[in-house]
Amino acid sequence: MTAPTSPLISCTPGVRSGKPCLAGTRITVSDVLEYLASGMSQEEILADFPDLKAAHIQAVLRYAAEREKRLSELTIA
Question: Which CATH number fits domain 9-76: 3.30.230.10, 3.30.70.270, 1.10.10.10, 1.20.1250.20?
């Protein structure tokens, strides 16, 4: 796994099995992506998790886009 490129995302051994999480929380990148994919709006997610800010959701989307780009480059090479 590649290290996150945002200070808002971290991978900590022992926290959610080392999955990328929003820094200082146990909320994984995949949790937020699943919420968005299920139809939750950014506002609904922020209301459910008051410690989060819009910048966290943007960091999740950026992380997912960067990961997808890296995976695509690996399969082309």
Answer: 1.10.10.10
CA distance linking residue 12 with residue 72, whole number of Å: 26
| Per-domain residue ranges of the chain | 9-76
Chain segment 21-72, per-residue pLDDT in tens: 999 899 999 999 999 999 999 999 999 999 999 999 999 999 999 999 988 8
Give the C-alpha separation, 69 to 67, whole Å: 5
Q: For 8, list phi and psi in degrees, rounded to 5.
A: -85, -5
Q: Under 8 Å CB-to-CB from 60, ≥6 apart: which residues?
A: 9, 22, 29, 32, 33
For the entire predicted model, the pTM comes to: 0.85
